[in-house]
Amino acid sequence: STMYDPHGCNVEMAARIKENVRCAVSVVGGINSPDLAEKIIAAGKADFVVLGRQMIADPGFVSKASAGHGDLVRGCIRCMRCFPGPREEVTDEEKFEQVNQEGCSINPCYEFKQYLTHVPQAESPKKVLVVGGGAAGMQAAITASKRGHYVILVEKAGRLGGILNYAENDSDKGDLKQLAETMAREAAFEKIEVRLHTEVDAALIKEVAPDVIIAAVGSSPLMPSIPGIEGKNVISALEAYAPDAVSGQTIVVLGGGMVGCETAVHLMKKGKDVTIVEMLPQLAKGAYRLHKHKLRDLIQQNIPFYLNTRCVEILENGVIVENENGRAFIPADTIVCAAGMKSNPIHELEELAGDAVFKAIGDCVLPRNLYEAITEGFLAALEI
C-alpha cells in the first residue's frame, strides 16, 4: 500500500476469511501503530498482525508498545524507499535510475546497522545547540542526547516539525504529521531543552555558550523569474496546503515533480479543477518508483497535464505556456508554483558560532528529501 491507501487496507478481507476458516488468521498492510494493531485484534477481525515495512521504520515497535511508550513508535510513512518494487517491473525510462534504494526515510539505523540496538556514548559530553526544529534538527538533537550530550533545540516557530507541519491539512499525509509529533515527543522523552518562538542571535549564543552548533534552518520555496510571478494569484506549493489559501476553482500547478504532483492530487481531492505544467518529459521524476507510479495513475485519471512545456508568463486570469507546438493560454484562478526549494542562509549563524564547532545539515545545505534530512541529522550527532 502507498500513502494513498487506507491503513490496514487488508483488514476487512482478513475478517471475511476469519469468519469462514478454523485456523488462525493474520493480516498485513499499512499497519503502523500499536493502537491500530490492537483495534484490529480487539475487534476480532484477525488473530494477529504482521508488520513488514513498519519493522524497518522502527524495530522497537513491540518493545516500545509493551513498555507503555507506543506514542514513541515512528510509524512507517509508506514512501516506498525501502521497497521501490520488483526489478522485473522496471520500465525503460527507469533502467538507468537506481531501482533499489538503501535505507529508510525515517530510521537512519536501518542503513547503518551497527547502531540498530544503540548509539555509542560520547567520550566527552558537550553542550550542543541545534538551530531549527524540522526533521533534520530534531533527529540531530535526539541522537546527540542519546549519546550523552546536553542539547538545546531552538525553533523560531511555535512548534517543532518544520516543513512536516504542512502535511496536517492533507488527508493523505497524516503519517508525516504523526512523524513530526512523534519526534517532538522523542525530544521530550530525551529531556532535550526545547526553546520555541526563539531566534538565534549573539546574546543567545553568549548565554548558551555551546561547544557545538548544528544549523538545520531548512529551505524556502523557490519562485522562478517568470513575468507575473509576484502576482496576488500566485502561491507556493507549501502555501497551497493551508485552508482557504487557494482562491477560485481552476488551478494551474507549475512544476510536475513529486511536490507538484502531490499538491495537484491534494487540490483535485479538494474538488478543484487542476492542470499541471512540467518542463521535463515525465512526471514525478524524483519520487521513489512505486509512489511515482501511483501518483501518475491518479493524475492520468483525473488531472490534465502538459509535459515538455514551460510557463513564459503569468496573467491575472491564467498562464501562457510554450512547447514545441507554440504558445497557448491556460485559464486559472490561482497559480501554484512548485518549482523547488532554496536553502535558507546560514552565513550569519556561522559567523556567530565563534569558537564553537559549526555543522550544517539538511535543506540549508541543499534542498532534498526527508531521507537526507534525517540521515544527516543522525550522522552529525555521531560525529560530535
Description:
Strand 10, helix 9 and strand 11 (305-306) form a beta-alpha-beta unit. The protein is built from 11 helices and 17 strands. It has helices at 11-18, 34-42, 53-57, 61-66, 135-146, 174-189, 202-208, 258-269, 289-302, 347-352, 370-382, and strands spanning 26-27, 48-49, 127-131, 150-154, 193-195, 212-215, 219-221, 234-236, 250-254, 273-277, 305-306, 310-315, 318-323, 326-331, 334-337, 341-343, 357-360. The mean pLDDT is 95. It has 384 residues and is α/β, with parallel strands linked by helices. It starts with 10 loop residues before the first helix and ends with a helix.
Counting DSSP E segments of at least 2 residues, the number of strands comes to 17
The radius of gyration is 23 Å
State the helicity in percent bands.
Answer: 25-40%
Widest sheet: strand order?
5-4-3-6-17
Which structural category do the helix and sheet elements fall into? Answer: alpha/beta
Overall morphology: globular
Question: SSE order in H/E notation?
Answer: HEHEHHEHEHEHEEEEHEHEEEEEEHEH
Query: Mind describing the biggest β-sheet?
Result: 5 strands, parallel
Features:
alpha/beta; 384 residues; 5-stranded parallel beta sheet
What topology emerges from the helices and strands here?
Layout: H1 11-18, E1 26-27, H2 34-42, E2 48-49, H3 53-57, H4 61-66, E3 127-131, H5 135-146, E4 150-154, H6 174-189, E5 193-195, H7 202-208, E6 212-215, E7 219-221, E8 234-236, E9 250-254, H8 258-269, E10 273-277, H9 289-302, E11 305-306, E12 310-315, E13 318-323, E14 326-331, E15 334-337, E16 341-343, H10 347-352, E17 357-360, H11 370-382
Parallel strand pairs: 1-2, 3-4, 3-6, 4-5, 6-17, 8-15, 9-10, 9-15, 10-11
Antiparallel strand pairs: 7-16, 12-13, 13-14
